[in-house]
Request: fold
Amino acid sequence: MEKLVVTGPTSLKGEVTISGAKNAAVAILPATLLIDGICTIENLPNISDIKISCQILEALGAKIKWNNKNSITIDTTNITTTKAPLDLTSKFRASYYIIGAMLSRMGEIEVGMPGGCKLGARPIDQHIKGFELQGATVTVEKGTIYAKAKKLKGSPVYMDIVSVGATINVMLSAVLAEGTTIIDNAAKEPHVVDVANFLNTMGADIRGAGTDVIKINGVKKLHGNATYSVVPDQIEAGTFMLAAVATRGDLLLKNCITKHLESITAKIVEVGGNVEDYGDSIRVWCNKRPNKANIKTLPYPGFPTDLQPQMGVVLSIANGSSIINESIWESRFQYTEELNKMGAKITAQGKTAFFEGVKKLYGAPVYSSDLRAGAALVIAGTVAEGTTEIYNLEHIDRGYENIEEKFRKIGAKIERVKE
Ligand code: EPU
Reply:
């Protein structure tokens, strides 16, 4: 078993290069199944979710060559089976994208019910509704999803809730369908736009990604023979921005799209931090105890749920009392119990948490319940006086490339230790 050992307090200072976006990359890799040919994907984050995604594609018949740790060339000319390995697909969330892509490419797929972070109920009814409206039959039995379609047909699809996964999945199934699919009440996240940009580069006809209506005109074939670079990770950038504020540090984040960071920038300014926006890089610094603030998580362009725990660390040491209202996931306050072990005063009830800001956090052994909770605990460990041991690293490794090295380079005293 591995743990991260962080000794604080440290004021983080220096430069961080932001990696490619996990939540775009985990959709772009399955999207390559729509191509009858070869393409190269660059700026891939080197994280365990990407490695599992590659293993699933290889099990389906794709050939993958690693050009370096952040770039692959993938040949999807020969897809040899429609049974995706259940053990791998049930390990992570984004395996649901195999359904949309394989229904479109092969007309059939068997895949394990998706796993991923335990954030409360994570239904996929909107994905299934979209596939069925396009003419597919979908059944779920004993943890396996069986989906079939003779030929998918374009259809209007109204999403009952704004869902990143369902929007991307229906986009994948619509790309090679006969006719036009219109997704109404679509998610607008940067990773939705990035997947559409990737597919359009390969010959798809998708318009309106980034707005709440996306129109996909089905095409006969995607051509491949192109190179695509994954968009910078909005959530990794936001994680370091909040780490700068929490530790009263000064960080320059390179390779980011600052337009995607506006909701975070606004809250950082509200709590008394400073931000300088250079378009493709951003400087964040703070030289005082943060002010209190209230947060409500919302789909993009609102404040992202995936930065709620990291913001929770800032509010736990703020001057005054704050409230966070989590509107996306039922159980995203598990990290607050761990912060309380470190001296925070947080009361979480359902989807609301009350933060009574304390002056200091103190090191303690803590457990990461999910990916973003893990990132929040790394920030908390850097803020805290003494030594923090963080367990359950598999969550952090799913989504952050080399987190300890990136934190070490900006001054954190952090080590990965094997027990
Ligand atoms: N929902 C439904 N039915 C559906 C789909 C979603 O009721 O068919 C509900 C969910 O229960 C949730 C809300 O709709 O309450 C939004 O869920 P969404 O589908 O947008 O989430 P997701 O696609 O499963 C992605 C990210 C999450 C991120 C959410 C929200 C990936 C692989 N995961 O999940 O990322 O929190 O969007 O932005 O893209 C993370 O990276 O740590 C993470 C959890």
Notes: The domain at 2-19+232-418 is CATH 3.65.10.10 (UDP-n-acetylglucosamine1-carboxyvinyl-transferase; Chain). The chain has two domains: 2-19+232-418, 22-229.
